[in-house]
Amino acid sequence: MAETRATAATLKRRIGVCANVAEFFGNGVLDARSVAARRRCMITYAGRVCAVLAVVAVTAAGRSDPVDPAFSGRLLLVASDGDMEAQAYAGDVLGRPERDLLSIFTINANGMPALAATVPVPNSVVGPPASLTTTPDGRYAIIVESRGNRPKRADARLIDLPPGRAITVVDLGDPVRPVVVQRIAGRPGPISVSVSPDGKLVAIAYDTTKSGEAPLDVRDFDRGQLSAGRSPPLPGFERGESLKNAAFAPNGTLALVYATKPRLSLVNIVGAGAATALTRWGDDVPLGRTPFEVRFTPDGRFALVNDMTVPPTGDDVRGTVTSIELDAARTPEGSPVHRIVSTARTGVQPEGLAVSPDGRWIATTNLERTAYKAGDARQGFFASVTLLRIDARGRLVRVGDYPFAGIIPEAAAFDDTSRFLAVAVFDHLSPQISSGSLDIWRIAGDFQDPTRTELVPTGISVPLARGAQSMSIVRACCTE
Question: Is the model's pTM score more than 0.70?
Answer without folding.
Answer: yes
